[in-house]
Amino acid sequence: MGVEILEKKGAIRFLTYLLNQPGYSTIITKAVKDLDVGQTALYSTIYKLLDAGLIREERSDRVPFTRRLILTNKGRKVAELLSQIEEVLKE
User: Fold this and answer.
1) From start to end of 1-91, where are the E strands?
2) C-alpha–C-alpha distance, residues 63 and 21, integer Å
3) Is the peptide bond before 22 cis (omega within 30 degrees of 0)?
4) Crossing angle between the packed helical segments 11-19 and 73-90, to the nearest 10 degrees
5) 65 with 74: CB under 8 angstroms?
6) What does the pLDDT read at residue 11?
7) Phi-psi region at 24: left, alpha or beta (left = phi > 0; alpha = psi -120 to 50)
8) Structural domain boundaries of the chain?
9) Backbone torsions φ then ψ of 21, nearest 5 degrees
10) What is residue 13's predicted lDDT score, i.e. its pLDDT?
């Protein structure tokens, strides 16, 4: 999978969001609230990022059952580059 993964709506925003979260991770409900996006749209992006190996998922096996999304090393590198591009564009 190539750069086309970043064309998925919300992919760049979600990766840079995770980069700025403690431990490069978040739970889905927090991301939906923080990013002010619909859960369905976010899930579509999440599945693409998981397939591309840019994020990984950890599921809680006790109440409350949560799904934590975490940047992989590859995802962190991509997110850092995207963040640098954002800074250049703001100049």
Assistant:
1) 25-27, 55-59, 67-71
2) 23
3) no
4) 100
5) no
6) 93
7) left
8) 3-90
9) -95, 150
10) 93
Asked if 52 and 5 count as a contact pair (C-beta separation under 8 A), the reply is yes
Residue 89, CA distances (Å) to 6, 17, 77, 78, 86 in order? 17, 17, 19, 17, 5
pLDDT of 78 reads 96
Each residue's pLDDT tens digit in the chain (91 positions)?
688 888 888 899 999 999 999 999 999 889 999 999 888 889 999 999 999 999 999 988 888 788 899 999 999 999 999 999 999 999 8
Quote the CA–CA distance of 71 and 53 in Å, as a whole number.
9
Q: What is the DSSP string of 12-24?
A: HHHHHHHHTSGGG
The CATH T-level fold of domain 3-90 is Arc Repressor Mutant, subunit A (1.10.10)
Residue-level pLDDT at 67: 87
In total, the chain counts a number of residues equal to: 91
